[in-house]
Amino acid sequence: MLNGKEKICMVVQDSMVKGGIAAVVNGYHGSYLEKDYNIIYVESYKDGGKVTKLLKGICGYIHLAKVLLFNRPDLVHIHSSFGPSFYRKIPFIYMASWAKIPIINHIHGADFDEFYANASGKKKELVRKVYGKCNKLIALSEEWKERLSQIVPTDRIVIIENYSILHEDALCDRLNRPCNNQVLFLGELGRRKGCYDIPNVVKYVAEKLPNIRFILCGSGSEADENAIKKLVYKNRVDNNVVFKGWVRDGEKDKVLREADVFFLPSYNEGMPMAILDAMGYGLPVVSTNTGGISKIVYDKKNGICCNPGDVETMAAGIIELLTDNQKRNDASKASMNIVRNGYSLESHLEKLQELYEEVIHAEAVNRRMINK
């Protein structure tokens, strides 16, 4: 063990940002991670217009510069993704590198092909250069470790899955109440999350269960939201779909408790916090076998896991879970047990602390070798 009060500078999003990165980091607040380490949070991004995002980014760069100059952290832990997030994080990585502070880059990205595999040679070179300045990369699953190994050596990649908070009382209530015929989606409304498939799935399910309700909690671009709503009306299932927008706190807790099945038809994922959140409430899950999902959704055990775009299998799985009380209850209990046995916040933080200690210890050894 280290002395327990090493300084960790963590580059994060504003806590109110919509999405999985903020959800992961928000669980750190008030945890024993903050008791064991001196965590300095540097916010780099917030939702809003271009000017709001630009000003937030500039403030983040200035804040990190002050931390590096006056607080001299032992480690910089950066939460990043692909796309614009990658470019926003480049100055943070370079500043920490120039200050000779070890860097952990926590990769939450999902579309690896667009980001790297199918990118131009120039972009690939930039990605390798930037990631090469990081002492360790955190991958969310074994599949993502394999993908990231195209950029950096595997010994610099550590798997730390996302986590869930257990709500035992929600599972107890679910097992002891009638089925509401409610299917819940949480996330960004767009193609990557499979939302263009949802209207067809609803159509298939509604043919068997006319009173089914799909509760879609999330937001996306105006174009995506309008296109998905048009498909809902085209399939004549508008009475079966509720668009609630982005939910958080008490409203999010309410929809998770009232739902009977969680549905995420994604095409690209890392380790989605939305599924882990749902499983922490004891919800059966119907999803796809992309990214790390198949590590937490076991087909025919705690739900249905099928190929992206297979709307008929998804619909059949939802119908089966809603109409067979025993299967639904067994799947609910299985979801809770999977989280309890391997995806708790405590387990996540233990792995994170082990990585902190490894990186800080290795840096201390390197400095002693240099000073000899």
Textual characterization of the structure:
It is a single chain. With 372 residues, the chain is of the alpha/beta class. The chain has helices spanning 20-26, 32-36, 50-71, 84-98, 112-117, 121-132, 142-148, 168-175, 198-208, 222-234, 249-258, 273-280, 311-323, 325-342, 345-371, and strands at residues 7-13, 38-45, 75-80, 103-107, 136-139, 157-159, 182-186, 213-217, 241-243, 261-264, 285-288, 303-306. The mean pLDDT is 94. Helix 4 links the parallel strand 3 (75-80) and strand 4 (103-107). The strands form two sheets. It has a six-stranded parallel β-sheet with strand order 2-1-3-4-5-6, sandwiched between helices. A six-stranded parallel β-sheet has the order 9-8-7-10-11-12, with helices on both faces. Helix 13 crosses helix 14 (325-342). The protein has 15 helices and twelve strands. The radius of gyration is 22 Å and the shape is globular. Helices cover 49% and strands 16% of the residues.
In terms of DSSP E residues, the strand content is 15-25%
Number of helices: 15
Model regions low in confidence, pLDDT < 50 over at least 5 residues: none
Distance between the termini: 24 Å
What summary fits the major beta sheet?
6 strands, parallel
**Rg computed from alpha carbons, rounded to a whole number of angstroms:** 22 Å
Number of E-type strands:
12
Shape estimate = globular
Strand order of the largest sheet: 2-1-3-4-5-6
Mean pLDDT: 94
Derived from helix and strand composition plus strand pairing, the structural class reads alpha/beta
Give helix and strand order, one letter per element, not per position: EHHEHEHEHHEHEHEHEHEHEHEEHHH
Helix proportion range? 40-55%
Protein name: Glycosyltransferase family 4 protein
InterPro entries: Glyco_trans_1, Glyco_trans_4-like_N
Domain Glycosyl transferase family: 181-334
Organism: Candidatus Mediterraneibacter faecavium
